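Bit of a strange request maybe. I'm writing a small parser for structure token strings and I need a real example to test against, not something I typed by hand. Could someone generate the tokens for this chain?
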Amino acid sequence: MQRREFLSLTAAATATAALPQYVHASHEPLLQGKAEHVISIWLGGGMGAIDTFDPKRQGDPGKKLPGAYYPSIDTAVPGVQVCEHLRKLAPLMDRVTAVRTVHHNVIDEHAAATNFMHTGRPVSGTVVYPSLGSLIAHERGSASEDAPAYVLIGYPNVTRGPGFLGARHSYLYLTDTSQGPAGLSRPEGITLGRQNRREAFLAGLREAGHVPSDRLVQDYEEAIDQSLRLSGPGFTSCFRLDEEPADLRAGYGGEFGQRCLLARRLIERGVRFIEVSHNLNFLNGAGWDVHNGGIEQQHALIQELDTAMSALLLDLEKRNLLDKTLIVVTTEFGRPPEFDGGGGRGHQGSAFTCVLAGGGLKHCGAYGLTDELGKQIVEHPVSVADFFATIHAAMGIDYTKSLYDGDRPVPVTDQGQPIAALFESRA
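Reply from user aminoacidic:
Good idea to test on real output. This should exercise your parser:
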């Protein structure tokens, strides 16, 4: 090899090494769905698949016999069973895919696992990654100028935030479905005339001033503009749940169900991504984190999820919105089949279930196979990055692209590949 040829090859190899590690093969066409909205249901604490969407043989906590806490029942999909407390979802599982083989290795710390399941990556010391909601808000924006792109029905948390994407792609949040987001309504004592004078004064200041170049100032200005738009009657009418028929509201169930009903109203208004948290009003003092005696009321949580999610599916379907709306159910990790000293369960990341429904996907009831007790994956493992890539693909987002933290390229997912079986053409 001549010296010139050697130098050329060395330079090419160096340049290749400097590229981002994830490069999509050109011969593989992108999978792209047609979903327009996401309703993400977050089950804080760690939902156990063996007691919900991936039932196995029944165990006995008294005898320390590993296994499911409840009997299982058949569903609309032959060969797919769920636990007996998902009785309303069982006949609807042909619109659902329980992805039973999600996995990661973060099980010791709830906060770290929660961050992983919101950003698709473990915590980094150099990059603050955006949450799934913020990333979709960045890529798709809101579906209406009179609505935010991202709403969180639950308490604010950095794991739900925009990371390096900046404040403009953050969330609007509320914790009370009867009142709507705090800060959008005028304070007492501020009349409409006074509000109009304030807005006119602000407009005058802006007209006389210069266009801000600082990123933080721009974000602040945009936040002001959005809050003024959203404080009008158009968007705030979303929160009048009493406009819904009484039987429909009752069909959704309690407070968690009302959050799901509100999520449906928000997507109709044009919100792109809504997270509905199911860890505000826990029935057992521990939520889905069913150590020891916390498991004794786990069935009530499952029944709440069953009631609300089944009502949401049918409501969206009736309004011709189910194919446009991807419902995602996630949790930070799963639970093992063994019982702890108090009869509850510990943490498990080697195999757990997340759920997809609607969104125009080709659903199959369940995807992936775990062993006889749900501890290990037997077929079709799905990494967290793969699960996120599936969501992006369903939303028509290029899951192979990179975003930029300053000059640093950051792939949308951590080398994730969508579950191709959910995108095959329908028969």
